[in-house]
Design a protein that fits this description.
Blueprint (H helix, E strand, L loop, with lengths): L19 H29 L5 H13 L5 H11 L2 H21 L9 H23 L4 H30 L4 H4 L4 H11 L19 H15 L1 H27 L7 H19 L3 H30 L4 H26 L8 H7 L1 H45 L7
Helix pairs in contact: 1-5, 1-6, 1-8, 2-5, 2-15, 3-5, 3-9, 3-14, 4-5, 4-8, 5-14, 6-11, 6-13, 9-10, 9-14, 10-11, 10-12, 10-13, 10-15, 11-13, 12-13, 12-15
């Protein structure tokens, strides 16, 4: 694994390439706007369409969130070598088509009719998310770009929260299904932006790539990387921890609050904005945080904030103040964790393609995103939202312990 030391003043920035940081950040905003809109609206749309079981909702969400595990490694092998722009553009179109399918399924279709568009969405996002993060990793100066990446992801989430909650507050839960059409425009915008990816952001240096080819080769190579490199294992745990926090916030904040129905949408919006705007404000300072406390310190900050935030929501019961504190802490977790996980996965001098290394971190995350929605859905039926958030805090604490055990200590220059 390459050096994971702190950045230092006077270091030469990485070559920016033809794509540049601005294009990479714009792609992140449009992609994660689609992600966040779908994640907020899907549970409400499923319930409004007649799916009453928390367990079944969890299973359907798992299709959308976890199936990407199947697509990420073969997509990474191809795009590292042959170029990312074309695959990303096609993936954006596929996401748009599947979102349209979900919106149609919400118009009174039986439960099984959701399965195909949800599975297609999950497979498409698996190829697109990892490949987009590879573009980010190869655009601009590493620490600055990763800080902007984290801020852009949470800005997109904040925009999605405003749009979704305004829709639901104005038109009721029944609007969630038709609201899935809102996922289509940003997915199409992403597909158009992806066509402009050029230079070093589009593909890796052939000399840095292994001889891996094909889907089977991609799976085996990424699994070997994950098994051999503690930094990739740490990155995987950070990914899973952050996605757990976001999943619980987007899908379970509305259930956790015991407030009058007319106030609920605006209180949920306030919580989501507390979380996401905290990340937007703190994200650009990520490089300074790493310079002061090192990458391992940033990992610690992210993990502690994630655990404390989930515990605050769970211990507060249905109280708004505890949920607001948890939301701010989750914003800080995202601001430090998003950059840290990508830097661990794509350290300077790391062997193998950028996309394949990022895909290697998705194995654990993909399995977790298949399993955790089901577990949390079942817990919701058994113990209510309090049990969901407290169990999430325990799981997050276990992941933090693993992160710290696996994150390499910084080397000095």
């Amino acid at each position: 694994m390459g050096t994971l030391s702190r950045p230092f003043r006077g270091s030469a920035p990485a070559a920016e390439g033809a794509s540049g940081t601005a294009l990479a950040v714009a792609m992140v905003v449009t992609l994660f706007l689609t992600e966040s809109l779908a994640q907020i609206l899907l549970p409400v749309a499923l319930e409004a369409s007649g799916v009453r079981s928390g367990l079944l909702i969890g299973v359907l969400l798992a299709l959308a969130q976890g199936l990407g595990l199947l697509m990420a490694p073969p997509a990474a092998v191809r795009t590292d070598r042959a170029g990312r722009g074309g695959v990303l553009s096609a993936g954006g179109l596929a996401v748009a088509a599947c979102a349209a399918g979900m919106a149609l399924a919400a118009q009174g279709a039986p439960v099984w009719a959701w399965a195909l568009p949800l599975a297609g969405y999950g497979l498409a996002r698996g190829a697109v998310v990892t490949t987009t993060l590879a573009v980010v990793a190869r655009s601009g100066e590493r620490y600055r770009t990763q800080g902007l990446n984290g801020a852009a992801q949470r800005l997109a989430a904040a925009l999605a929260a405003v749009v979704s909650v305004s829709l639901l507050a104005g038109s009721g839960a029944g609007a969630a299904g038709p609201g899935l059409w809102l996922v289509v425009p940003p997915a199409l915008a992403f597909a158009l932006l992806a066509r402009r990816v050029r230079g070093r952001a589009d593909r890796d240096d052939p000399a840095a790539l292994t001889a891996t080819a094909g889907a089977r080769g991609g799976y085996l190579a990424s699994l070997r990387m994950l098994r051999r490199e503690p930094a990739l294992q740490a990155s995987s745990l950070i990914n899973l921890n952050l996605n757990t926090v976001v999943l619980l916030g987007n899908s379970f904040y509305p259930i956790a609050l015991d407030v009058p129905a007319d106030r609920l949408p605006w209180l949920v919006l306030t919580l989501l904005l507390c979380r996401d705007l905290t990340s937007v404000a703190a994200g650009p300072f990520f490089g300074r945080v790493v310079a002061r406390v090192g990458l391992r310190g940033a990992v610690t900050v992210s993990g502690v904030c994630a655990v404390a935030g989930l515990a605050a929501v769970g211990l507060a019961g249905s109280g708004f103040a505890g949920a607001a504190l948890g939301a701010v802490l989750h914003g800080l977790a995202g601001a430090t964790g998003i950059g840290a996980t990508n830097l661990l996965a794509t350290g300077e001098g790391a062997a193998g393609g950028t996309g394949l290394r990022l895909a290697a971190t998705n194995h654990l995350n993909g399995v977790g995103m298949l399993v955790l929605p089901v577990v949390f859905g079942a817990l919701l039926d058994l113990s209510g939202p309090r049990g969901v958030f407290l169990t999430g805090a325990v799981a997050s604490a276990a992941m933090l312990a693993g992160m710290l055990a696996l994150t390499p200590r910084a080397r000095t220059r």
